[in-house]
């Protein structure tokens, strides 16, 4: 019965193959012994690993106990003794976290070295129920209520070798019965290091109490986790898809999301997209709270272009135009591949037949149009925004290309000589605030002739009297 | 503070409009009074309804209390006294279910009558936490853990008027503080009828116990429900879409699902599609257990064509070819619009120039081809499956159209006169077992000339000596 159920769990739920070794993490307790002898009986090739956390006086004896079993059975055995207490102090982790860290690090190292298909550990159904209840009490949502899975890739340990839990569907009593039937004597009280006071109290007081409300409580919680796990898998798959659809661009330290598309998604997906972005930028972050996510969503709904908040873990959330940006504190805001000056203080001269380089392969080029036909003058009304036509007799070549000064004003074409502050122009044209200092101006003897790409000036405009035209053009090359 | 938060809950979470009346269900307890005076203060037009469940001696006094408040304030007031005990007995419901049933029935009746936009009730955050924990202890999955929503259509009460819960985000203490600030004295211990022993114990013992594990337990559970509700909404939307994509055909008492498409979906979606199909066929069913769904899924994966199981609540699950059918016990299996006899015992004669009617507008027609050209004979090899060409000199007209008898055999064309049982032919041709008795045969003097649509017989085949041909053809009309 035990073996038949284990065979199904191993092959179907854990996806294990018969002919590739499995690394089994063995503490010496009943769970890991049942796992070990069960998988052996099913004919899986095994490699045994034991981690001595050096936290209790009997830990050396336990390591010897596991080694003896391995030797007797002729199994490959590898072990490591690590001072978890010291590691915890150095890494500023709790003992529990530190033990987990060193344990899995060693198990996956060994799995890689011995070309194992998976790392198998002895978590069982009672562990599952306790885990789910702990997550519930701590306030986890679906990601916590789904409990532990039979099989999962843990990218922090290995990108390809999964962690499997073939005993996840077995209750403690089933496991102990199997171990007894083999006449094995497991190490007593080899409680793994998760078995803290909190978990013990939950096991010995809370669960029995909850069972007075529903005698089938454990079965019911286990099944809930199982169903929620399937639902969570489905949503994970859909969220990844949704994330890709919301994504504009991503890099190591920033992610750009298409804001208006994002705002049309269901709230649950929005939460998951934001969460996923945070995880990508801060993969080591273990808990992303509801509050951060909710604050992020509220911000996305209410923000104006240029607004910015602290999100979580040294990440900002910024709205620029129709883009929602999640970025590390140190990451620059995106410049959207615009034709900007490389730095605010940049100065250069631009003469006929020459060019000035801007960011992202953009450049400004100047040429002269000598023959002014009626047809050409007709075109003056339809000059594209990436060109400026200036009256050669009004402009002094070479012109200057530079950024704007605080409070600088100019006379926009078509406003009858009235002047406007550049600030107002930038606001009207929705130029993100952080990019304004980099915005290039074409200046002739201190007078702005063209706010590049946005607006030429009244003072240099073409008239019927114009003899020659200076044409300045924005050009994008792939350089 | 109270009103500001209520205004947001009413307009945003509950989607209430300012200018259409709201029907408020008022028991006389603090919750419903807070709801009533709060909505009034926000300027919503209100209609008050009270249900006297006649379960306790003080219930008349409570009805009077609410009526007095309504009169004093000049609100429209409607009440009903119903003997819930009697109703429960007649309908075989628990007292709690019966009270709920009569209460909501009356509230929605009144809402329709007074053209209200919604029925508002006083469930608050503590109720939410208790509800979620009760569902958890009973073993609900997402549908239970999501708790009660701020706004939901309850099709069993009304197809258009939603039930709203504007106080869902308020804790009991906030509500009592507001009621005190108005110098209102609510009815004491107007516990609504859900407040059974079970719920009381949960409130007074279990929740305080859980708070020793996490002092913020209630907030944490409330928020979990809120997040899960969004996730569940999203999945509901996706499941409906998934259901439509899996759907082949549906009717009042059966639903056909495209089996191979269904089997490719994520498990979570499969579960939901099956659940949705059950809900459509048995809308009154309140609890659909995990076990039924899992049994259904396992069956879908393992079943052969013709297999059938009892699913739940007088529903069967049947596989026929590539179709998974959920049906009531009494519903016939689908006949896929095939050209079948109307009943197994059907007999008819078919003569030249006449026809015999079959199901779904199909008919068999016989005609005679007199001029046999070489070209025509060449076509004999390519006769479509909906026609049979018989040698007029071998067949005796009129032929008989009838169903098959048990064990009947015939000589299929092209098998050199060897005979085959009809049973084997049907199996090879994947004719669903339940349709075989209805399958039409064309029979000449006791000999099968054509198993309609499947195979003609060797005994009547066209040869070079054939003078005239009887052509029998399956024709579909829209009659």
Q: What labels describe this entry?
A:
479 residues; Uridine Diphospho-n-acetylenolpyruvylglucosamine Reductase, domain 3; ligase (chains A, B); homodimer; Rossmann fold; 3 domains; five-stranded antiparallel beta sheet; Phenylalanyl-tRNA Synthetase, Chain B, domain 3; nucleotide-binding (chains A, B); 21% strand; alpha+beta; 39% helix
Write a structural description.
- Two copies of one chain form a homodimer.
- The radius of gyration of chain A is 34 Å and the shape is elongated.
- In chain A, a hairpin with a 2-residue loop joins strand 19 and strand 20.
- The termini of chain A are far apart.
- In chain A, helix 10 (217-246) packs across helix 12.
- Chain A is an alpha+beta fold and 479 residues long.
- Chain A folds into three domains: 2-226, 3-Layer(aba) Sandwich (Rossmann fold); 251-328, Uridine Diphospho-n-acetylenolpyruvylglucosamine Reductase, domain 3 (2-Layer Sandwich), CATH 3.30.465.60; 347-476, Phenylalanyl-trna Synthetase, Chain B, domain 3 (Phenylalanyl-tRNA Synthetase, Chain B, domain 3), CATH 3.50.40.
- The first copy, chain A, is built from 15 helices and 22 strands.
- The model of chain A has no long low-confidence stretch (mean pLDDT 90).
- In chain A, the strands form five sheets. A six-stranded mixed beta sheet of chain A has the order 3-2-1-4-6-5, sandwiched between helices. A five-stranded antiparallel beta sheet of chain A has the order 7-8-11-10-9.
- Chain A has helices at 2-13, 30-41, 59-73, 84-91, 95-113, 125-138, 142-145, 172-181, 197-211, 217-246, 259-263, 267-281, 290-302, 374-379, 422-428; strands at residues 22-25, 46-52, 76-81, 118-120, 151-153, 162-164, 247-250, 254-258, 308-312, 315-320, 323-328, 347-350, 355-357, 362-369, 387-391, 399-402, 409-410, 420-421, 441-444, 447-451, 455-456, 469-476.
- The interface between A and B is large, with 38 and 38 residues.
């Amino acid at each position: 019965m035990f073996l038949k159920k284990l065979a199904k769990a191993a092959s179907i739920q854990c996806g294990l193959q018969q002919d590739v070794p499995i690394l089994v993490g063995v503490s010496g307790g009943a769970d890991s012994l049942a796992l070990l002898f069960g998988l052996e009986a099913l004919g899986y090739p095994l490699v045994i690993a034991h981690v001595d956390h050096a936290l209790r006086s009997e830990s050396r004896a336990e390591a010897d106990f596991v080694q003896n079993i391995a030797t007797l059975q002729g199994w490959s055995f590898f072990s490591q003794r690590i001072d978890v207490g010291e590691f915890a102090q150095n890494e500023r982790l709790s003992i529990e976290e530190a033990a987990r860290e060193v344990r899995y690090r060693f198990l996956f190292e060994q799995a890689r070295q011995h070309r194992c298909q998976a790392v198998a550990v002895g978590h069982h159904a009672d562990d599952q129920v306790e885990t789910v209840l702990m997550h519930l009490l701590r306030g986890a949502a679906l990601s916590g209520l789904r409990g532990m899975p039979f099989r999962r890739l843990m990218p922090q340990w290995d990108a390809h070798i999964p962690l499997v839990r073939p005993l996840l569907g077995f209750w403690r009593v089933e496991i102990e019965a199997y171990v007894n039937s083999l006449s094995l004597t497991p190490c007593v009280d080899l409680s793994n290091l998760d078995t803290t006071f909190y978990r013990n109290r939950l096991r010995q007081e809370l669960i029995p109490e909850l069972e007075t409300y529903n005698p089938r409580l454990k079965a019911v919680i286990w099944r809930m986790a199982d169903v929620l796990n399937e639902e969570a898998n489905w949503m994970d798959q859909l969220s990844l898809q949704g994330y890709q659809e919301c994504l504009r661009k991503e890099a190591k330290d920033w992610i750009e999301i298409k804001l208006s598309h994002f705002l049309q998604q269901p709230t649950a997906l929005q939460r998951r997209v934001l969460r996923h972005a945070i995880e990508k930028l801060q993969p080591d972050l273990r808990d992303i709270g509801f509050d951060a996510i909710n604050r992020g969503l509220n911000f996305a709904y209410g923000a104006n272009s240029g607004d910015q908040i602290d999100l979580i873990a040294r990440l900002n959330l910024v709205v620029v135009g129709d883009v929602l940006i999640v970025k590390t504190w140190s990451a620059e805001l995106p410049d959207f591949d615009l034709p900007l000056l490389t730095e605010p203080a940049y100065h250069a001269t631009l003469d006929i037949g020459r060019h000035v380089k801007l960011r992202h392969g953009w450049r400004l080029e100047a040429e002269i149009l000598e023959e002014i036909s009626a047809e050409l003058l007709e075109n003056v009304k339809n000059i594209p925004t990436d060109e400026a036509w200036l009256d050669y007799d009004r402009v002094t070549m070479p012109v200057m290309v530079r950024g704007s000064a605080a409070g600088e004003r100019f006379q926009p074409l078509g406003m009858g000589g009235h002047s406007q502050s550049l600030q107002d122009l930038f606001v009207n044209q929705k130029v993100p605030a952080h990019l304004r200092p980099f915005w290039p101006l074409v200046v002739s003897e201190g007078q702005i002739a063209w706010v590049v790409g946005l607006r030429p000036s009244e003072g240099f405009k073409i008239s019927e009297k114009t003899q020659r035209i200076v044409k300045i053009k924005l050009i994008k090359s792939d350089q």
